Structure formats: C-alpha cells, structure tokens
C-alpha cells in the first residue's frame, strides 16, 4: 500500500500527465523539502509497471512524468490504494461535505489517518476542518467524540441529526444541489422538494439504510418524476425484485410511497415501489465486491475524462464540479443496473428538456458517447434527458459562481441604502450577488471577506482597499449601470485579473508624481510602530510635530476599520482621511519581514499612502498596480530584493506578467 505522500504524488503526476513536473513543484505541493520529494519519487519508481500500469520517467533538467501503459492495471492500482482522482481537487467546502457524509450518513468507524489518506491533507489541516465542523454541529446540539478503536463519531439525538441534514445538505447552505437549480417550478409538483426529502430521509434512516446526500437527492428526483409519470398517465414496465433478499428496501420504498399517496391522494402502481426499491438496493454502501468497486472506479475515471473533453471543446467547468460528478455517478450506477435487467423509464419532462434546454441535451449525448460502461447500450432520449438534469444544474451553478460578490456601502446601511440595493438587484442581478448592505462605520475585515467589488453611495477615494471601489448615486443612473457593467467585465472570477493601466507611460508619470527617493527606506528588520513613525517622518516635509501625530493617529484609525495588509508580503497603511496638501507615497522594504498583525507576520513591502485633500489624479492606477502585485510572487521577490530606489522603480514599472 502507498503512503499518504506517495498517493499525493501519484495523483498529482496523473493530473499533469501532459508535462514534466519538477521535484521542486512536487515539494511545494507536498509541503516538504525538495530532497524528501525525490525520496518519495524514488520509492514509487521501484514499483513494477507490469503491476501498476504506470511508468514514471525521470529526465534530468525537466523532472518527472507519468505514462499510463495499461489503463486497466492503472485503475486497479488506484482502486487497491483507495486513490480517487477527483479527491485531489476537493476544496474546503466539499471536504467538509465529504467528512460529514462519512460521519452522518455512513455512520461507520472513521479514523483520522484514513481521512488524511482519502483527502490528501495533513493532520493539522484535518484538525482545522473538524474545529469548524464541530462549531457547525453545535448549533444542532450535536457533538463530535473520539474513542480508541471506534474513531470519531457524531453524538446526539436522531431528531437533531435529521434537522442538521436538512439544513446542511438540502437547503443549500453549503451544497448547491440539483433541487435548487432544477426545482419545484420546472417539475410543477403539488409537493415541494423539501417535503419529499424529509419523507425519504425519515423512512430510510428509520430502517437504518445508509444513503449519502447525493443518493437521497437522486432518489428524490426519481420520485418527483414518478409523480409526474402517474399524473400524466405514463405506464411502467414490470420489474422483478427478490422479496426475501431485499425485504427491507421494498418495505422502505412502500412506506415512502404511502406517505406521498396520503399527502397527495395519488395512487402509485405497485411497479413504482419496486423502482424505488431498486434505487435503495443499488445505492447501498456495504458489501460491494472488488469487481463492483473496479467497475465504479472505471466509470468515475471515464466520466471525469469525458467531462474534461467537453470542457476543452466548449469552455465549461464540468470536470471541476464535485457536486455534478458525485450526483452523476450515483445516477449512472443505478442506470447501469436497470439496463442490465432491461428496465427502461419514460421521462415526462422529455419534450420540455429537448425544447428549452437542447444545448444541455446535446452535451449529455456527447458525454454518454465517451462512457465505455454504456457502449453496448442504445440509450433512449428519455434516459438521456434524466442525465441532462444534472448538467442543467451544473450550468446554473457555473453561472452563479461567476457572479461577483458585491458589498454595498451607504452612510447608514438603511433608507437610501435599501433604495440602492433594490436598484442594483433590478439592473444587475444576472451579474452580481449582493453579499451585504452596510453603513460607512460598519466596514470591517469580516464584512470584506470574499468581496470582489465595493459599490458605494459615498466617496471612498481617500481609503485604499484590496478590491475595486465604484462610487454611484443612490438612484443608480443609466451611465452608472454601464460603468459597473464595464468594470464587471474586467473582474470576472474566471479571469481573476485586476484592471491595469492601459498606458505604461501614464503609470510611469504617475509613479514619479507620487513616489520619491526621499520617501524610500530599506530595513533588515523592524518593529511595526517604529517603522510607521519612520515612514511618517519621511513624508513630513516641514518636520511638523502636529503632522506626525495626526498622521499616525489617522493611520491607526483606518486599520481599526479593516486590515491594510493585502497579502503575506504587502501592506498599504493610509490615513482614514486626507491631511496632506500634496499626494505622496512612502515605501519601506523590510528584508527579513515584519510582524504586521496576527494574520500577517512576514510583510516585506509597506506602501504608506497619503492622499491629497485637493486632488488625487492617478492614485487609482497606483493602487491597482499594488493590488496587481499581490498575484505576482516573483515580482514581489524582486521588489523585496531592491537595494535602491532606482532598482525598486524599475521593478515596480516592469511588465505585470510573471516571467
């Protein structure tokens, strides 16, 4: 069996098979030394390609590259080592979801070491995850406990566990599921998805059927379509299930349908009980044979590769959508079981899906063409339309995720603020998500977390933020709407690019207007307060004691509002209001870094911005350039290594692109 680090290397090389990967890159990925990374690589290279299906090539000066020489052996090797190629890309939210699925739904023994291997994270990262999860569970009177030989588990009443499951997994607080995007209105049901979910959840958990959140979601969608089938008069083909072997699943399916019948006064045919029971049988977690696990691994691999192919052709991000992949896998596994016993379903939504969502339907056809599991079957349009629902939900998620998070700031956060809020929603809701509406004095670090753009009805030009700020009137005029739309185009999350000055010559002229060798200092190390005093003194052209005291006080008051550290390297302190007649910027380079605050302990570049009380033409170009630097680690290194103002100026004005 591979160790945790070796698994991480296999996964990383597998995902970057198109190129050589250096030992330095692997070391950064593993959070270890270059030498240690090479040791792990050498260990992996001792495995026989005849056993693993892979070969690792080492090329001096280039690094390492993985070649798959036998796909089936490769997949078996991954399966034997519990390697899941999609796990590597799980972000923190999906990681929490994965852990909670294990704790709440599977309810088996869960050990820290196993989770570390499955998620490719360190013990400290996992401990941090559990700290946040504990806090979330505490709201529902649930706790996480740990015991020897039993691992970690959730303690609390079943009632509280079900409350948590509904809020966390099915209300979209963390997981944006299919129900949210292809929901009640599209299905036109006389019962809500939430109520259907409660019924399924109650009956499955009462009989201790262990279904994950994705399994329950798929089952609820199946039941929603079953309701439409009955209402629209569709017939079902008979399906035979071993009553003795699967009596529990049949019993649970019967209770689910009985509750729905009582709620809606709708009669379901006997066949529908067996169809739901088939879902419950197929989706059981326990007792999977090795052959079945290999088959599921192959399906996951083929699905991921097929989604990547579609992404490459059409520019989507399906292969990065954890929710889509997990939901599709559950659906496709059930579909494979049905096809194996020659059971097919009519889809009452087929006409609407082909008519209104033809693009998604054709994408689904292309996807299924690349899945070897279904190569021997001719799937009907009805079956394809079922799968299309998952892609439709993913497309909606991608549109939602591409919206900018906007913070709206007004004088108080009330009255006129709500007017501006409503105008923004009416005019720009397809492009922005309004995260909050606050007053000027409510600006804080917490309020700025995750914000892409600030829209304010009061002038904030005297303050510097790490995100762009647009000033508009509370009535939001047409030209202001156009201005916001223009800005949004430069800030799309997919590009993650900050607007840079269009003319480098203009930036050069602006630089000389704000910066000066008199305001430039280099330190080996420094105390924060002493550094600020020294920088303020450099700006104090007239050596006015009152100026120095006022400036320091205003700088501290600005930092009380929210942090002025833009990242681990750069801080931009500035007064909460302008007091200088002429604008200027002091710069300090601290070679060994400075302890700025509890979040940033190695700041090396400090820009003390002092705007003018009169005019600050070009300041936006300077601050945009500083913000741009936060995504340029190589340029940050060069600036931090500057041994003179001339060298600093040359690097600051150099091409924004990393070399």
Write a short abstract of this structure:
With 659 residues, the protein is of the alpha/beta class.
Shape annotation:
globular
* Residue-averaged pLDDT: 83
**Helical percent range?**
40-55%
Main sheet properties: 4 strands, parallel
Helix count equals: 29
The whole-angstrom Rg is 29 Å
Structural class label: alpha/beta
- Give the strand line-up of the largest sheet: 6-5-7-8
Strand content: 5-15%
First CA to last CA: what distance? 40 Å
Flag low-confidence runs. Answer: 493-505
List the helices and strands and how they pair.
Layout: H1 4-15, H2 23-30, H3 34-45, H4 49-52, E1 54-59, E2 63-68, H5 71-80, H6 92-106, H7 112-119, H8 123-138, E3 143-147, E4 151-155, H9 158-170, H10 178-181, H11 184-187, H12 193-206, H13 213-232, H14 247-264, H15 270-282, H16 290-314, H17 322-340, H18 350-356, H19 358-369, H20 381-401, E5 404-410, H21 416-428, E6 432-439, H22 445-448, E7 453-456, E8 469-471, H23 478-490, H24 504-514, E9 520-523, H25 528-539, H26 545-561, E10 570-571, E11 584-594, E12 603-610, H27 619-629, H28 633-640, H29 645-652
């Amino acid at each position: 069996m591979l160790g945790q680090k070796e698994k991480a290397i296999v996964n990383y090389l597998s995902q970057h098979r198109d190129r050589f990967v250096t030992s330095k890159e692997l070391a950064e990925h593993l959070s270890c030394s270059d030498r240690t990374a090479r040791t792990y690589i050498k260990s992996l290279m001792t495995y026989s390609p005849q056993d693993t299906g892979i070969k690792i090539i080492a090329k001096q000066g280039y690094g390492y590259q993985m070649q798959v020489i036998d796909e089936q052996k490769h997949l078996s090797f991954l399966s034997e080592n519990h390697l899941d190629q999609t796990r590597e890309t799980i972000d923190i939210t999906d990681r929490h979801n994965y852990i909670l699925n294990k704790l709440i739904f599977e309810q088996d023994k869960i050990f820290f070491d196993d989770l570390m291997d499955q998620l490719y994270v360190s013990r400290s990262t996992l401990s941090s995850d559990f700290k946040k999860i504990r806090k979330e569970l505490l709201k529902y009177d649930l706790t996480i406990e740990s015991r020897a030989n039993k691992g970690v588990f959730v303690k609390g009443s079943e009632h509280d566990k079900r409350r948590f499951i509904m809020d966390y997994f099915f209300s979209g607080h963390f997981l944006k599921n299919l129900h949210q995007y292809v929901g009640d209105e599209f299905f036109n049901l006389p019962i809500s998805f939430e109520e259907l979910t409660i019924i399924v959840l109650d009956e499955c958990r009462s009989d201790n059927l262990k279904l994950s959140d994705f399994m329950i979601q798929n089952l609820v969608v199946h039941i929603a379509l079953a309701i439409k089938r009955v209402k629209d008069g569709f017939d079902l083909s008979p399906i035979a299930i071993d009553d003795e072997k699967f009596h529990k699943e049949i019993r649970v399916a019967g209770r689910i349908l009985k509750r729905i019948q009582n709620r809606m006064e709708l009669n379901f045919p006997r066949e529908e009980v067996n169809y739901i029971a088939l879902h419950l049988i197929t989706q059981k977690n326990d007792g999977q044979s090795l052959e079945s696990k290999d088959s599921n691994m192959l399906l996951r691999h083929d699905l991921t590769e097929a989604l990547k192919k579609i992404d490459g052709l059409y520019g989507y991000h399906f292969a990065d959508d954890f929710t889509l992949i997990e939901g599709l896998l559950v659906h496709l596994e059930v579909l494979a079981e049905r096809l194996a016993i020659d059971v097919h379903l009519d889809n009452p939504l087929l006409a609407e899906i082909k008519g209104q969502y033809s693009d998604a339907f054709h994408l689904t056809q292309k996807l299924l063409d690349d899945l070897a599991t279904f190569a021997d079957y001719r799937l009907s349009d009805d079956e394809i339309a079922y799968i299309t629902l998952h892609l439709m939900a993913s497309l909606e998620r991608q549109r939602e995720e591409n919206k900018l998070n906007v913070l709206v700031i007004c004088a108080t956060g009330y009255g006129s603020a709500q007017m501006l809020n409503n105008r923004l929603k009416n005019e720009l809701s397809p492009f922005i998500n309004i995260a909050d509406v606050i007053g000027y004095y409510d600006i804080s670090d917490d309020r700025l977390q995750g914000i892409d753009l600030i829209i304010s009805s009061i002038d904030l030009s005297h303050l510097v933020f790490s995100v762009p700020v647009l000033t508009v009137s509370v009535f939001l005029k047409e030209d202001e709407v156009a201005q916001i739309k223009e800005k949004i185009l430069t800030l799309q999350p997919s590009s993650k690019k900050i607007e840079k000055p269009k003319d480098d010559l203009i930036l050069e002229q602006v630089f000389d207007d704000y910066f000066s060798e008199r305001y430039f200092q280099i330190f080996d190390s420094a105390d924060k307060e002493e550094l600020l005093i020294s920088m303020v003194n450099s700006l104090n052209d007239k050596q006015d004691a009152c100026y120095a005291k006022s400036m320091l006080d205003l700088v501290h008051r600005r930092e009380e509002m929210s942090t002025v550290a833009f990242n681990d390297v750069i801080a931009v302190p500035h007064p909460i209001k302008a007091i200088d007649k002429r604008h200027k910027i002091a710069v300090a380079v601290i070679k060994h870094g400075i302890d700025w605050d509890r979040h940033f302990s190695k700041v090396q570049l400090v820009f003390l911005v002092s705007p003018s009380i009169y005019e600050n033409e070009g300041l936006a170009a300077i601050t945009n350039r500083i913000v741009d630097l936060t995504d340029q680690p190589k340029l940050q290194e060069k600036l931090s290594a500057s041994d003179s103002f001339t060298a600093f100026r040359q690097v600051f004005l150099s091409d924004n692109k990393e070399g």
